[in-house]
Amino acid sequence: MLRFTAVIVASGLFGQVYAGEIANDLNDYGISPILNASFLHLENPSLGQTTGQTENVYIINYGANIDLSKTLPVKDLNVHFEMAYIPNITNKTFGSTVGDSIFADPSPYIPNKSELQQFTVKKGFLDHKIVVEAGKSSPSSYFAKPLCNLLYSCQSPLLPSNPSLFSSWGGTLDYMINSEYDLRVGGWNYIAEFPFQSGWEMNEQSTGRTYMASLFYQDQKERNNFGEVGFFRRSAPETNPLTGEQNSGYSGFYINRKIPISKSHEINKTFKVPGTTFFEQFTYSFDKGNAKGLLFTNTMGLTFDSFINSRPMDSYSITLKNYQVTKDKQNQLVNNYALNGLNYNVDRMQTLVQLDANLFVSPQFIISPYIVYSWNTSSKNSYDFSKLPRDGVGFGLMGIIFLDKLF
Prior knowledge:
It is a single chain. With about 400 residues, the chain is mainly beta. It has a single domain (about 1-405), classed as Carbohydrate-selective porin OprB (Porin, Beta Barrel). It contains four helices and 18 strands. It has helices at about 1-15, 20-30, 95-100, 325-340, and strands spanning about 30-45, 55-65, 75-90, 115-125, 130-135, 170-175, 180-190, 210-220, 225-240, 245-260, 265, 270-275, 275-285, 295-305, 315-325, 350-360, 365-375, 390-400. The strands form two sheets. The protein has a 16-stranded antiparallel beta barrel. The chain has a two-stranded antiparallel ribbon with strand order 11-12. β4 (about 115-125) and β5 (about 130-135) form a beta hairpin.
């Protein structure tokens, strides 16, 4: 991991000498490059079903935002292109071997290859009051974006988005009601076999559609005061985990809110009382027999600004997560354990507390450690019913280097 990071940093610093000149040349043509490298390390010393597991994921993102109005006689026309390359990944089965509802559920299954993340054309009308965007993308790029301090760790798995590394044909329509309220709708193909496609397929093997709509609020005077309420529908065949019956999909709603509570106050030249922000993300399914096996997820917590004057960009947070499986999913687990002679008595609600931080090594390099403890741990994602899940500790470490910010 450290070697990978060192290579990326060295490559970035080597090119920094020419960064200003390159940036000016690209800007003349309306090109804003995208180039970053990230890693993710996960461990579960005592949490979940099979403990002592680790996973490492390395990702390189590259692409560009292109403002075509600088080279063509057209206004408000942009192209967004982005690829993800996975140079290495270890223990792709981490999510299913740990098996719980929260800590391991976001664990990515990503084949070692390049994936198209986004290739869209965006056009603004009426001075950007209406914006249409279409092409290859993922709903997670537009709806229910995470609010917490550690973005990767708090996007609800109940949302019907393809994972953000995988794209499909779709589009959005954005209507700015006024300076504070924004209404957006969107629709995409649902690709059930998304890990095994490259994203460049013209004739996608879709099994249904994903539809989303939301109303977004942003306080114009306070950037940390915003919220979103949205609805989703996945119209694709699903199998009830208990009965085996098929339905036509599932739907639900989500509410995201972020509110500043207090501002920072300087104590002395070294320390300050950090500013505090409250956030909450609630997601609920109307369909209690959905294949995801979740009835609702709720993530709430506090984010604190840096308490050290010389490190103004750092931040910390404490988060409480409650995920409840459906009755059908719980009964399925109970039945499967009973076949192995085990009594499954874990509650439907798994609760987890998380401590994390974003630490800026430099403006271009962020390290994000986090640690969790789980109660009433579920085995929702496991395929092994020979042993019960354990409450306990899990931790992770993420890092990202924004090489494009060197330009």
